[in-house]
Amino acid sequence: MKASLLLLAIANLVVGIAHNGTAPEGCKKLSSDSDWPPLAEWRAAMPEVEVHKQTAKAKHPDYVLQAESYKDVSAAVKFCAKNSIRLVIIASGHDFLGRNDGPSGLTLDVSLLKGVRVLESFTPTAQGAERPLKKANVIVPVPGRQAAVTFGVGVPAQQLHNAVYPSKLLTIGAAHGSVSVAGGWGLTGGHGPLTHKYGLGVDQFLEFKVVTADGEIKVANDAVNQDLFWALRGGGGSTFGVVVEATVKAYPNERITAADFFITTKGSPYSDGLWSAYTYFTSQMPSMVKAGVSGYFYIQPNSISTLMIHPGDIAGTAKTAAFWKPHLDKMASFQGMNAANLTIFNYGSYKHYFDAHFGSVDDIPDEGCVSGMKQRIKRHGPGGDMMSPTPNGAIPLDSRLLGAEHLQSPVLKEAWMKASPGIQGHLVANPDLKVGNTSVLPAWRKAYVHMIGTRVGNWTSVDSLRRLAPEMGAYANEAFYASANWKTEFWGENYDMLSKIKTRYDPNFVFWTTPGINADFMEVKEGGRLCRVANGGTSNLPPKNDNQNIGSGGGGAINSAGFGTAPKGKSGCA
Question: According to the UniProt entry, where is the signal peptide (predicted)?
């Protein structure tokens, strides 16, 4: 490591002599600037800082620090603020918009900040919750009392499921086990298999500990720093500070029935009958949510497939089969459609359902599985412990939220037919839920489904859904990065207040991400340098990202719903 750092220092010195200039005022420094901090200063502030490995396909920040403590995070933020260094934050590495990478500065990796403490209840205080434990404790939930769990930001969804399972509890996370709950997923909205029942990711948070631009660790909850607490629940990750710890609600564990159906056509691809069946199916989704059902659904050239779930009181083979029979009979009645194939799996706990359908990060016993499919294991990423997350998922997406009036519109079929082929659907929201005041896009509170298309290959956009639902907006984590009117598209009426809070806590843009709050106060200039702009805050389009690896092969693409093929030889709930 010392040899590589010495070589980098020599290279920086040579480039610095050739450049012989300082960073322009209002701009982040580059390693070619003469005022770039020497290696000794980096190591004095962050002894464990390392050279960021570069490849022929990818250009990353100059240095990387894997924080092992909250003090490490504070030191990194202070150093970048003092020296005007570009700061990139990564938790688990999942970001379709490529905001967890950059071409210069420092990558701050918070994936090692772990630990879990399970709580019988939570009361917000100025001091904040007790720190997480290295090994999660076990509690006996008190009936009628809201349980909670405090954990480090490096704990991904599935590890959190595992930690609370012995206490007969469950938590809300993404439909992908390695996604950080308190990272960008939860800070921007956060949808998953049970968000229709318990609320979005933003609705789960009871408290944050966050390192703000001054390098100080602040507690944010309903008792202290309420403005920051509000902004963090929907305003986006890497924007107001670095979350190092969070406390979320935990719920009594419950059994899950999964209903997977597959229905095919007899005729040509994307036939009229297929679209008619799909339109009927999606038009019934408001009533499905009211019945307690959620899930994921896909349309392919000659088929419709789903992964739907029935939790708690509506679980069970007989109830599930009875629920789906009229819907599947109706879909099969359209011209050219075959009868549907319905497969039902029962699980004694949410954890076992999740492990079986989305991939396990550990080997688990078969207990809890009444009947089910083979357990999947984690499909990608640098090891089950997430020791070295890499940027994944940099791929152009497009999306739209739809409410009841849109799903029952007389022009819905036409809108589906004009949308991207292979569009993915997520039945994950519920307008009838009573949730607290957060800064998430208000359209989520009217929506039932979140639809995704991609702008890759022959796939185009979801413009037809924009025309169907012009007032709704899109989920900022899975949206088109160049969306017009992006502030209202992604944050609606909450944007102006979020902008003021961003200015209050980070006036000098220690944290910058795009699309993000006040992103257009900065711009990327030639050479990848990030600089302030004179007319900030006026752009109709979000500024271009400085991540040079998007589309270059420097990052991987993942399926948004977390579906994948299970590796052979691994079995579990079978």
Answer: 1-16
Q: How many CB atoms lie within 10 A of CB 229?
A: 23
Give the Cα separation of 525 and 375 in Å (integer).
48
pLDDT, one tens digit per residue, over 218-261 is 999 999 999 999 999 999 999 999 999 999 999 999 999 999 99
Confidence at residue 138, expressed as pLDDT on a 0 to 100 scale: 98
Whole-model pTM: value is 0.90
| Residue 419: Cβ-neighbour burial (10 angstroms; 0-12, 13-18, 19+) | buried
CA angle, residues 481, 487, 488, in degrees to nearest 5 = 115
Token representation of residue 496: 């102006």
And the tokens for 432? 């009838």
CB 478 within 8 A of CB 185: no
* Cα gap 308→165, rounded to integer Å: 22
Paired strand residues for 529 = 525
Least confident of 103-117, 142-156, 247-261, 451-465: 451-465
Secondary element (H or E) of residue 286:
helix 285-290
Which whole-number Å values give the CA distances from 181 to 71, 104, 121, in the listed order?
Answer: 21, 27, 20
pLDDT digits (tens, 9 = 90+) for 527-536: 899 999 988 8
Report whether 51 contacts 5 (CB < 8 A): yes
Distance CA 121, CA 125 (A): 13
Q: What kind and span of H or E run contains 468?
A: helix 463-468
b (16+ CB within 10 A) / e for 88-116: bbbbbbbbbbbbbbbbbbbbbbbbbbbbb
Strand order of the β-sheet with 50-51 is: 50-51, 63-66, 106-109, 87-90
Model confidence pLDDT, tens digit, residues 61-106? 999 999 999 999 999 999 999 999 999 999 988 898 889 999 999 9
- Residue 548's pLDDT band, with cuts at 50, 70 and 90, is confident
Question: Bigger pLDDT: 550 or 252?
Answer: 252
Q: How many other CB atoms are found less than 10 A from the CB of residue 54?
A: 13
Which H/E stretch holds residue 288? helix 285-290
Q: Across-strand partners of 220?
A: 208
**What does the domain layout of the chain look like in residue ranges?**
2-109
Q: What are phi and psi of 168, to 5 degrees?
A: 60, 45
3-state secondary structure of 335: coil
Domain 2-109 has CATH 3.90.550.10: no
Spell 127-161 as b/e; 16+ CB within 10 A means b: ebbeebeeebeebebeeeeebbbbbbbbbbbbbbb
Beta strands 303-311 and 294-300 are antiparallel
Confidence band of 550 (pLDDT split at 50, 70, 90) = confident
CB 489 within 8 A of CB 203: no
**Position 183: which residue type?**
G
Following DSSP, what letter does each residue of 479-542 receive, concatenated? Answer: S-TT-TTHHHHHHGGGHHHHHHHHHHH-TT-SS--SSSTTGGGEEEETTTEEEE-TTTT--SSP
